[in-house]
Amino acid sequence: MNDNLMDELWSCLCNVIDPEAGINVVELGLIYKITVTKYDVHILMTMTSAACPMGDLLINDIEQAISQALPDVTTVNVELTFNPLWDPSMMSETARKHFGW
Fold it and tell me: Which of 19, 28, 72, 99 has the fewest CB atoms inside 10 Å of its own CB, making it the most exposed?
């Protein structure tokens, strides 16, 4: 795996903002894993809640952000999981400061 590509993917995901929280999906701890093959990117992620009304929007934003940043990628697959369930301890220090915690 090319470290530069992985860095680019993580940076790309840092531009995807959860509109309810006002902070990106990486800092929120929603991205569990990124897997890359020659032409495909697979993102394993969660939501802060199974009832999150922004789920479809976030998935679409992630797919678009990666497709725009990496036009050679033919497939962007975002898989939603709730195992493990998200909890606030998964947030970065930056996110905690954002919320005043």
Answer: 72
Q: Are 45 and 31 in contact (CB under 8 A)?
A: yes
Whether 74 contacts 40, CB under 8 Å: yes
pTM: 0.91
Joined together, the tokens standing for residue 26 give: 């990486």
b vs e for 15-46, b when ≥16 Cβ sit within 10 Å of the residue's Cβ? ebebeebebbbbbbbbbeebebeeeebebebb
pLDDT tens-place string over residues 26-80: 999 999 999 998 889 999 999 999 898 899 999 999 999 999 888 888 899 999 9
In this structure, which topology does domain 3-98 adopt according to CATH? GMP Synthetase; Chain A, domain 3 (3.30.300)
Write the DSSP symbol of residue 85: P
